[in-house]
Automatic annotation (TrEMBL):
Keywords: Catecholamine metabolism, Methyltransferase, Neurotransmitter degradation, S-adenosyl-L-methionine, Signal, Transferase. It comes from the Eukaryota. Its EC number is 2.1.1.6. Residues 1-19 form the signal peptide. The keyword Transferase applies. GO terms for molecular function: catechol O-methyltransferase activity. This is catechol O-methyltransferase. GO terms for biological process: catecholamine catabolic process; developmental process; dopamine metabolic process; methylation. PROSITE patterns: SAM_OMT_I. InterPro entries: SAM-dependent_MTases_sf (IPR029063), SAM_O-MeTrfase (IPR002935). It holds the Pfam family Methyltransf_3.
Length: 249
């Protein structure tokens, strides 16, 4: 399918060149979207293949070390060891039982989180791209974790948040890690509030806080200093604490 798309793009270009100019802009937009998907899929497959073949199966630390080794030579969406150690420290200090990860990528952060959770804890990890979700889940299993310890939700963040109450029952989320599209950070944070999924003990981790979408969350939180506080930051990853049981949006 990917090869067919690549072969058809030049032909589509010729057709559109003969048409009205607005279609050329549409063509450029289409090309950008198609190439982004194809390049992303290639990256996911290459990362997965390397981790799968080079790590020691059943050992989470080996999986993480292999990820870090791969990232030294290739482009990678993983948060890396420095921010990973920061996340470890938060997990160790807060000892969460129910964690939501928005933006699974290839499973690096998922593995870091799961190795810090008790066996009766639960990670819900969300990845909208089906291929990435599939490959990421395989990496989690390769790291030695059981299906009872995590659940991959291959859907949009909005869909995942709206369905979480059915998974959690009366429980709330102890930790939320946002590492997906920064433009979705604020809408998803507000959705978590509306669904009453956060408690006064919940912790929010934002990655890539320099992005405009993440800054929108920071601006929102600055208007509610009694409800939320910024705890610490490493590089572009930020820890935020919630202080209220429930907030009316």
């Amino acid at each position: 399918m990917e090869t067919l798309l690549l072969l058809s793009l030049p032909l589509l270009s010729v057709i559109i060149t003969l048409c009205h100019s607005p279609l050329r802009a549409l063509y450029r937009c289409l090309c950008e979207k198609v190439l982004k998907v194809l390049c992303g899929n290639v990256c996911v497959r290459r990362t997965h293949a390397y981790i799968f073949s080079e790590c020691t199966h059943g050992q989470a630390e080996s999986v993480l070390a292999t990820f870090d080794l791969y990232s030294k030579k290739h482009a990678s969406a993983s948060i890396g060891p420095e921010k990973g150690v920061f996340l470890d420290e938060v997990l160790r200090r807060k000892a969460p039982l129910r964690v939501l990860e928005l933006g699974m990528h290839c499973g690096y952060t998922s593995v870091r989180i799961l190795r810090m959770l008790p066996t009766f804890g639960k990670l819900f990890t969300v990845e909208m791209d089906p291929l990435t979700a599939e490959k990421g889940e395989e990496i989690i299993l390769v790291a030695g974790f059981k299906n009872s310890q995590f659940q991959v939700l291959p859907c949009s963040s909005a869909e995942a948040i709206s369905s979480l109450a059915s998974h959690l029952g009366e429980e709330r989320l102890d930790l939320v890690v946002m590492d997906h599209d920064p433009e979705q950070y604020l809408p998803d944070f507000l959705a978590l509030q509306r669904e009453n999924l956060l408690s006064k003990h919940s912790v929010l981790i934002l990655n890539r806080v320099v992005k405009a979408g993440a800054q929108a969350v920071m601006e929102y939180l600055s208007t509610k200093p009694h409800n939320y506080s910024v705890c610490q930051q490493v590089k572009d990853m930020l820890e935020i604490h919630c202080h209220m049981e429930r907030e009316d949006s």
